[in-house]
Amino acid sequence: MEKYSSVKSRTYEIIEKAQKGDKASKYFDSIILLLIISNTISIVLESFNSIYSLYYYQFRTFEIISVVIFTIEYALRIWTADLRYPSSKTKVGAIFKYMFSTMAMIDLFAILPFYLPMLIKVDLRFLRMFRISRLLRILKINRYTRALGLITGVVKEKKDELLATVFVMGFMIMISSTMMYYFESEVQPDSFPNIVASFWWSIATLTTVGYGDIYPITAMGKLFASIIAILGIGLVALPTGIISSGFIELITKKDIEKTTIICPHCGESIEHDL
Predict the structure, then answer these.
(1) Which of 17, 29, 53, 107 is least surrounded by CB atoms within 10 angstroms?
(2) Are residues 204 and 173 in contact, defined by beta-carbon separation less than 8 angstroms?
């Protein structure tokens, strides 16, 4: 029993992000990272019919090998879930807590397209669309790179502010679509047939893309479009500023944590100048 716990504990250490000096865990991380990058390249190359038809069996073999490795990884993470969530009262509870976590869902959808046709009869058109979820494998990098971890951390920290900007943006799109419909629908019934169809113009204008395929021709429409375009510049800058400040705050916080000295006698942090 003790040997089983020891093996399980060591397995958990290996499959989690490598700690300093843990060569086995570093090798595991490197293999998974290389496999994720290779899978992304494979998906891109498969879009070239000439390459895919010529190297079909190689692509298929690589897909099978990848799925086997990712499946073993997923199974090991389920097995060690109670070590990841020690606060869970039961082992089953820890497993369910892991299985419904964001990264576990990504792990599952990375392998599910391969097994789904074996389990149920699926329409080929639906299966082709569902196979796109293989691209989610690239999100597995989040476990092994600091960059994606920072992005996730910033979004979590600033979620309320970002939701506020999304609400403002939605409000602006609705108002501008409605106003433009009333200004332009009579003279341009094809371009602005209804408020929903006017959403395209609103989104393109507010995001300052301005494709130019749909544009106002009435005096009031042009005036209102000018105001919306100017407001759009500030609107796009809002989430950019929030995310930028969030990055600075998170990086500063992590740097302070790294430079904190812990007293070996009392375990308390010691304040010092950086």
Answers:
(1) 53
(2) no
